[in-house]
Structure prediction request, 144 residues.
Amino acid sequence: MKKWLWIFFLLPLSACNSSASDGRWYTTAQLETGKVLFARHCAACHGEQAQGLAKNWRKKDADGFYPPPPLNGTAHAWHHPLPTLQHVIQQGGVAQGGRMPRFSGKLSEQEQLAVIAWFQHYWLDDVYRQWMQRQTVNAQGGTP
Ligand code: HEC
Prediction:
């Protein structure tokens, strides 16, 4: 999807979603789905609470690969706008020399959004706010 289209997607969601959780873009229903899917598909690598399992996610392991980073807002997942996060989940990291498997074909687009919602619910409001600000910049043509 084109970058600028996301502003139309995010703004209405954050403004008028009656079942939204804490004023964030996702709904409590998405969180419930995301919780189950995250435990099933992501937790083995990224940790039960998206906290990451490696002592240092910035350091390559003995095989020369970066470990799965935390997704709970303490690493840099919050630098990525929503479409980029979804892209990583769809494509994985193998093509870029990483080890994350691809989930396109395994999780539907709605399910991908639900797992993002789930790991984002760990983000502190401050982190979430900075992430939202970056979305707006990106939607106006900034670099991701
Ligand atoms: C086999 C282990 C493994 C599984 C399973 C896995 N990941 Fe990953 N993930 C990684 C690794 C390793 C990286 C770092 C990039 C790479 O090496 O591909 C990563 C990177 C990411 C990133 C980018 C983070 C950043 O800070 O840039 C996101 C987002 C992500 N994973 C989400 C998920 C989600 C959501 C799931 C479940 C649907 C999942 N991953 C399942 C190993 C995994």
Notes: The radius of gyration is 15 Å. The CA atoms of residues 49 and 72 lie 7 Å apart. Residues 41-42, 44-46, 65-66, 68-69, 71, 75-77, 80, 85, 88-89, 93, 98-101, 103, 115 surround heme C (CB under 6 Å).
